[in-house]
Design a protein that fits this description.
- The structure holds three protein chains of three kinds.
- Chain A is an alpha/beta fold.
- Helices cover 39% and strands 20% of the residues of chain A.
- Chain A is globular and about 45 Å long.
- The model of chain A has no long low-confidence stretch (mean pLDDT 91).
- Chain B is 10% helix and 22% strand.
- The model of chain B has no long low-confidence stretch (mean pLDDT 94).
- In chain C, strands 3-2-4-5-7-6-12 form a seven-stranded mixed β-sheet, with helices on both faces. Chain C has a six-stranded mixed β-sheet with strand order 9-11-10-13-14-15, with helices on both faces. A two-stranded antiparallel sheet of chain C has the order 1-8.
- Chains in contact: A-C, B-C.
- Chains A and C meet through helix 1 and strand 2 of A and strand 1 and helix 10 of C.
């Protein structure tokens, strides 16, 4: 996904309470930590638990001027496998990437939805193992870190700590996993992030 | 005086300057205290909306021989003649007299 | 706008939405009293400030009130005894404050308020436009409209600088887009040490209620002097312009960011200029880039200072441009030209030496997005209509069934 000239536009899909909005903010924070420009915003309106939710992130090497909604994202991240493809496939660029929380294989999804680039991770399984709750947003970011050249896994880990727990961390993810001063909830998130990064299946047609 | 000289926002910087504005000529009836009947209870002093009942250190001996160390006087420069004092006086010691100007 | 220029203060880069940027600015301005009532999309401001006060980051009194009317009343009282005060609101909340807006400015109290702009009911709509802000334009509040979270932060500091200046003593509003900015996270720089803000914002003496030195604020004034006292506000508003320019210089010196009453982008050699305000200015710049690559000599202007209205800045920025397109985000119902900013712009150019062809468009009402394509379409339409455009009044962009031929 290297494209220095242009803004990368990401759209997150989930349900209220799964952390799609927080995921968009963590990604923007991670990009900001890399010295990049970023923008994160939810789909505006009343907040309702369980209702389909959209959130957006833009990343660029230059100051981002536009405030228009993202209609044609480069990347679509789907946090909830039960959402209908018609909701999240809308407007995805022809050479765009779909990142899906699913137990299915990447190739079969690519063929089913006719998308060229698909990444699949069982984020629900990872979240349940590490957090004992189906909060999948951090796991999805771990998957995303595999393809985003602009934003490293370390930055996403730091941004996660900052955005969710308001903790400033200077080291890398390896040192974080060994740190004893950090609580179980924080560590669970970082483990989920790391595990998703490793277990993500990438399919490019 | 122009807009430049007056304090901003109509702020009154001189506290208690209402003394300067005499309102006594608004009266139609003038309250007069009967020092003989007055029991110095100070209810008129409490009720007066303009604070014109003044407590003076002047002694007064009533017709029945009682000696008061104070006398209540009305400041007629500021009394508007509203008659609240007369209405509230429990011993009807305040009489309203038609003002002759 | 490039955010980091040469500056005196060491600064840190943080990711905040504009609501939080407001809260950080109020914190750094070291406000003493905050009274506010939560309303979408402003709620984040009050939440963040409550959090800062609760965790000891900000030493201030948070007065929880039952309405916006009380919120403004409470800080009017607090300001009258000498406190540095702050509130925030949106939409119906600002409307509910309306009578007190005039009381605050008439009493010459240096309050600062942020407004996350939002459409007005009915029909009920929580999304963005500028109907709420434009409705209070005659209430004698200095009004700045920001278009980035960075500018929101800087403008709150600037608003205190201007409002508290003894030559001004009028309250200020800092407005920004509800949702499009209030809920959008973006990087900005804030001072590492907030004492730098205290340096730009010294506590200044003014008339306050003090039992040891009694004065009366808010007395009745008869017809014999009322006009003179209101005329003081007319002069203070004019004076505010100069003080704002001085504050701009100080902000640039200490924080490294340069602001102007009318901001411009690619305007110098432009034949066509598009003027708007708030977050839409960002999208407009992106649209200008696109139109420039198609060979159109077009530039963007932003109205940053709404009250006092910067007539001379506008004229000098417009220069010899042939076309000036004003894109408003609010409707003045029944007006000769229904765009509030367009009306002011036309008045500014009346019988001037050079006057461009002006057209008035209204877009983005009730949260409808204004995209690059919209701005391109607006420019195309304005060029096609030319002088005829203004004869039709304001053009309501994108309204189904409204036609302008």
């Amino acid at each position: 996904m290297s494209n220095p000239q242009r803004t990368i536009e990401v759209r997150f899909h989930g349900r209220g309470g799964q952390g799609a909005v927080t995921a968009s903010i963590i990604l923007a924070e991670a990009a900001a930590l890399e010295g990049l420009y970023s923008q994160a915003f939810p789909e505006f309106g009343p907040e309702r638990r369980g209702a389909p939710v959209k959130a957006y992130t833009r990343i660029s090497k230059e100051h981002i001027k536009t405030r228009a909604p993202i209609l044609n994202p480069d990347i679509v991240v789907v946090l909830d496998p039960s959402l209908h493809p018609s909701t999240y496939m809308q407007g995805l660029k022809k050479d765009g990437l779909l990142v899906l929380n699913s137990k299915k294989g990447a190739k079969s999804i690519a063929e089913e939805l006719s998308v060229g680039k698909v990444m699949v991770v069982d984020a629900t399984g990872i979240a349940l193992r590490n957090l004992r709750a189906p909060i999948v947003n951090v796991a999805m970011l771990g998957a995303l870190a595999r393809v985003l050249e602009e934003v490293s896994l370390d930055s996403i880990a730091k941004a996660t700590l900052k955005a969710i727990f308001n903790i400033k961390w200077e080291g890398n993810i390896a040192s974080l996993l060994e740190a004893s001063i950090i609580g179980e909830a924080v560590l669970g998130n970082i483990r989920a992030l790391n595990e998703a990064y490793r277990l993500t299946e990438v399919y490019i047609a | 005086m122009s807009w430049k000289e007056i304090p901003i926002g109509g702020i009154i910087v001189e506290a208690g300057n209402s003394v300067k504005r005499k309102t006594g000529d608004w009266r139609v009836f003038k309250p007069v205290i009967d020092q003989d009947k007055c029991t110095r209870c100070l209810i008129c002093w409490m009720y007066c909306p303009d604070g014109v009942i003044e407590i003076r250190d002047i002694s007064y001996k009533t017709s029945t021989g009682r000696l008061w160390t104070t006398t209540l006087e009305i400041n007629y420069d500021h009394c508007k003649g509203c008659a609240i004092c007369a209405e509230e006086c429990p011993v009807n010691a305040i009489e309203l007299v038609e003002e002759v100007k | 706008m490039e955010s980091m220029l040469e500056s005196r203060a060491r600064q840190v880069r943080v990711l905040l939405n504009s609501n939080y940027a407001v809260a950080y600015a109020a914190r750094d301005a070291d406000v003493d009293v905050v009274a506010a009532y939560p309303i979408t999309p402003q709620t984040g401001v009050v939440e963040k400030l409550s959090e800062m006060i609760a965790n000891g980051e900000l030493d201030a009194e948070m007065i929880h009130v039952e309405s916006e009317h009380s919120a403004l009343s409470a800080i009017i009282g607090a300001s009258a005894v000498g406190a540095r005060v702050f509130t925030a609101t949106s939409s119906q909340g600002l409307e509910f404050m309306h009578e007190l807006l005039h009381i605050a400015s008439g009493m010459r109290l240096p309050l600062v308020m942020s407004v996350a702009t939002r459409a007005l009911s009915a029909p009920i709509n929580i999304w963005n436009d500028y109907s709420d802000l434009m409705n209070v334009r005659d209430s004698s509040w200095i009004t700045l409209i920001a278009s980035t979270a960075q500018e929101v932060y800087d403008s709150i500091i600037e608003a205190f600088m201007v409002s508290e200046d003894p030559r001004v003593l009028l309250p200020s509003i800092v407005a920004y887009d509800g949702f499009w900015m209030s809920h959008t996270y973006e990087p900005l720089y804030i001072p590492e040490d907030r004492r730098v803000v205290s340096k730009i914002l010294p506590r200044r003496p003014r008339y306050v209620l003090d039992p040891d030195n009694p004065i009366t604020i808010g007395s009745l004034v008869n017809p014999d002097w009322y006009y003179e006292i209101k005329y003081q506000q007319v002069e203070a508003m004019k004076e505010a312009y100069r003080v704002i320019r001085e504050a701009d210089t100080k902000i640039k010196y200490y924080l490294g960011r340069a602001y102007e009453p009318i901001e411009s982008y690619m305007a110098e050699d432009s034949e066509i200029l598009v003027l708007t305000y708030g977050g839409a200015y960002e999208t407009l710049q992106s649209a200008v880039d696109m139109m420039r690559s198609e060979g159109l000599r077009v530039g963007a202007l932003k109205l940053r200072l709404w009250r006092p209205f910067p007539v001379e800045d506008l004229k000098s920025k417009v220069g010899d441009a042939e076309n000036l397109i004003v894109v408003d985000r609010a409707i003045s119902y029944g007006a000769s030209i229904e765009g509030p900013a367009a009306l002011e712009v036309i008045a500014a150019f009346y019988k001037g030496k050079s006057c461009p062809t002006i057209s008035s468009f209204i877009a983005g009402i009730g949260g409808r997005p204004v995209s690059e394509e919209d701005f391109k379409g607006i420019v195309k339409k304005a060029l096609k209509l030319g002088d005829k455009a203004l004869k039709m009044g304001s053009i309501h962009w994108g309204v189904r069934g409204a036609s302008y031929e």
